[in-house]
Amino acid sequence: MNILGVDYGTKRIGLAWMQPGLDVVLPFGIIQTEEREEQLKDLVKLIQEEKIDVVVVGLPLELETGKETVNTKRVREFAMELQKRCSVKVEFVDERLSSFEADQMGGEASRDEKAAMVILETYAGNRADKT
Q: What's domain 3-130's superfamily in CATH?
């Protein structure tokens, strides 16, 4: 099973990849365009080419309260449109601290890729907690 982590932004989408069982999360590039339609097309193409089974999208909740915001709605709408276009399973994780954690990471990956890596690591940790 291939899992893609997505740190969605209106200008850039950070991507990370993992295969359960390998315990490795890798940066997987960025999609850099402000055109929503282009973002969707590029992501659908990637999902199909890489045979992605699950897309994990970071959900931007309000930092203090954890409540949903206008940005949360925008991300949910994007993810649901993605799911319609390629019939991939979409899951969400709280991304409130992903950018902060990404800034603490070393390496060559972009901040957006690192945030997507944190999102996938959170997802993997949540799955492990349930087993």
A: YqgF/RNase H-like domain (3.30.420.140)
